[in-house]
Structures are given as structure tokens and as C-alpha cells.
Design brief:
mainly alpha; binds zinc ion; 13 helices
Length: 372
């Protein structure tokens, strides 16, 4: 067997050394990436390694020059990507995650390793890990709102007073919901791809929440202030300015870090709570009874409670905070928050549909004693 001590001029010695290095490299790769990959199916690349070769191994490592090491690192990455591409990865504990994947230290196990392959990320939708629940809650929510949106758009025009205008108004709500939910499930799917991809998609995810809130305001303000175009326009403009500000804040790189979890909950809570002003306006102008009956305030109050509960659980990381490691896969705060977002958006749609029906019942008439 040729060793690195063979004379430099010996051609056959060099070729043998090359083969040797090749085997060493494969062995080293597996030793380093082993914890991230499944054992099964690895036998082919793991040649039997006689104990006598151990000393030589160390020597080979020592003589590796820098460019060679860089080349090996590249090859190692390629090999890893290939295995991940094949779906041969396994979940890993929180403490071995790279910093950019460390988000919630109460989820102790079941994390996906970094997988710089979109194919692998999308295939992981069908595997069980810390993000499975987050992906599916918003993937199913996305399908639900896409269907509801299509059904609403296809509704015969005879059910609307001003079909085009009203469909645009509902369309804004569905656009916000569909964008928010799709950005969200996409973010949770590709979150483990790489630092850059995770950062880009987290910005989209947060922007989506702002879009959902802005979109939700549109039909609510449209039907609640049906006969008062001026306050309607003012409130709509304010929520747009606040929403766009939230989107701008979400582009800040540090916004997505665990340190700013409360800031995030606060920004979106504040955006949602800006609805308190038009609610007060409506209630003072029309009285509490009309606000709760005709104004559907009960439903909107329930919607607000759901959003606030979701944001609170998200910020405080309840329940996993009290039982670290027990909610790694199911029922972690983020999943509960996701479910509450979908439920709240649905309750909002129901409330807004009732408002639409009421205005249709009045045949869109605005009289002096009618609502606003
Ligand atoms: Zn999420």
C-alpha cells in the first residue's frame, strides 16, 4: 500500500496515494456529517477501515494543503446536498442547530438539519419534525381561503348591490389572506434551506401578516361605513399607512431574531388594534345595540380575541415554556397561533358576509336614520 512517504517521482505511488486520499476523504465526510444523516444505505460509501490505517489517516489530514481543504469542503457539501436531496436526513436536537436556525429553545428535539435544497425542503412537508404542524396549518388554511375566495368571486352578481366594487372589496380581503397563508407555509417549508433563504422568506411571512390585517379592514370598513365615504376613506388610508410601515419594519434584518419576538407580536397587535378607533366611532354613532346586532361587533370581537390570544401565546411561547421538550412536534405555541389566525380570518369573513347581506337587504339605501 502506498503511503504519503513514497518518493514524489514514483507515478504508481502517486496514483495509489490519490486513491488512498479519496477513501480517506469519504471516511472523514461521513464522520463529520454522520449525525445529520440516516445510517441506512450508507454502507456503500463506508469502506472497511483497518486499524493499521489510523495513523496514516492523521498524517493525510495534516498534509492537506489549504486549497485542497477548500476543495474537500466543497465536495463534502455536494455530497451532503445529494444525500439531503435523496431525503436521507434525520431530525436533530436544538443544541446542534446552527445559530440562524435557533429560534425556540423550548423545542428540544425534532428539528430539521440545514438542507440547502428546495426539493428536500418541500419533501420534508411529508415528514414529522418541529415545522410539520406549522406548514400544514397554513397550507390547509391557504387552500380553504383560496376556495372561499374563488366561490365569492364566482357568486352571481344579482347578490350584490354594486357587484364589481363589492367583489374588489372582498377580493382585497382574500388576497391578503391567501398571500399571508401562502407566504407562511412557504416560509416554514424553506426555513431550514439556508440563512439567506430563511431570512428572505421570514420577511415575506411577516409582510403577509400585515397584508392580511390590511385586507381584513377593507370589507369591514366598506360595509360598516357604507353611507359615510369620508371617514371610510380616512380609516382605510390610516390602516394602509400603518400596514406599509409594518411591512417596512419587517424588512429590518434583526426583526426576525428571537430577541425581537415581543416586538413582532407588538407591531402586528398594534396594527390590528388600530381597528379600535373605527369600532368606537361606529358604536358611539349607532349605539351599542346596533353595533352588536347590525354591526356584527360580536363576531369582530371574537376575531380580535383570537388574534390577541394567538399573538400572546406566540410571544410568551406557551405551552412549551412550561414543559420544554413536550411540544416539540405537536401543540407548540406557533401552531396554536397559526390555527387561531386561520380561525380568526374565517370568523372575520363570516362577520363581513353578514354585513354585506344586511346592506343588500336594505338595497344599499342610505337614509338619514340608517347606519352612518
Ligand atoms: Zn408561522
Amino acid at each position: 500500500m502506498a503511503s504519503r512517504k513514497a518518493p514524489a517521482g514514483a507515478g504508481s505511488g502517486l496514483a495509489a496515494a490519490g486513491r488512498e486520499r479519496e477513501r480517506e476523504r469519504a471516511h472523514l465526510e461521513l464522520a463529520e456529517l454522520g449525525p445529520l444523516l440516516e445510517e441506512k444505505g450508507d454502507q456503500a460509501e463506508d469502506p472497511p477501515c483497518p486499524a493499521a490505517r489510523e495513523e496514516e489517516e492523521e498524517e493525510v489530514v495534516r498534509v492537506l494543503t489549504l486549497p485542497l481543504q477548500a476543495h474537500h469542503a466543497m465536495e463534502k457539501m455536494e455530497e451532503f446536498v445529494y444525500k439531503v436531496w435523496e431525503g436521507r436526513w434525520r431530525v436533530i436536537p436544538y443544541d446542534v442547530l446552527p445559530d440562524w436556525l435557533k429560534d425556540n429553545d423550548y423545542l428540544l428535539h425534532g428539528h430539521r438539519p440545514p438542507m440547502p435544497s428546495f426539493r428536500a425542503c418541500f419533501r420534508s412537508i411529508f415528514r414529522i419534525h418541529t415545522e410539520t404542524g406549522n406548514i400544514w396549518t397554513h397550507l390547509l388554511g391557504f387552500v380553504l381561503f383560496l376556495c372561499l375566495g374563488i366561490l365569492t368571486m364566482l357568486r352571481p352578481n344579482m347578490y350584490f348591490m354594486a357587484p364589481l366594487q363589492e367583489k374588489v372589496v372582498f377580493g382585497m380581503f382574500f388576497l391578503g389572506a391567501v398571500l399571508c397563508l401562502s407566504f407562511s407555509w412557504l416560509f416554514h417549508t424553506v426555513y431550514c434551506h439556508s440563512e439567506k433563504v430563511s431570512r428572505t422568506f421570514s420577511k415575506l411571512d411577516y409582510s403577509g401578516i400585515a397584508l392580511l390585517i390590511m385586507g381584513s379592514f377593507v370589507p369591514w370598513l366598506y360595509y360598516s361605513f357604507y353611507c359615510s365615504p369620508q371617514p371610510r376613506l380616512i380609516y382605510l388610508s390610516i390602516v394602509c399607512v400603518l400596514g406599509i410601515s409594518a411591512i417596512i419594519v419587517a424588512q429590518w434584518d434583526r426583526f426576525a431574531t428571537p430577541k425581537h419576538r415581543q416586538t413582532r407580536a407588538g407591531v402586528f397587535l398594534g396594527l390590528g388594534l388600530s381597528g379600535v378607533v373605527p369600532t368606537m366611532h361606529f358604536t358611539i354613532a349607532e349605539g351599542f345595540v346596533k353595533a352588536t346586532t347590525v354591526g356584527q361587533m360580536g363576531w369582530f370581537f371574537l376575531m380580535a380575541v383570537m388574534y390577541i390570544t394567538g399573538a400572546g401565546l406566540y410571544a410568551a411561547r406557551i405551552p412549551e415554556r412550561f414543559f420544554p421538550g413536550k411540544f416539540d412536534i405537536w401543540f407548540q405555541s406557533h401552531q396554536i397561533f397559526h390555527v387561531l389566525v386561520v380561525a380568526a380570518a374565517f370568523v372575520h369573513f363570516y362577520g363581513v358576509s353578514n354585513l354585506q347581506e344586511f346592506r343588500y337587504g336594505l338595497e344599499g339605501g342610505c337614509t338619514d336614520d340608517s347606519l352612518l
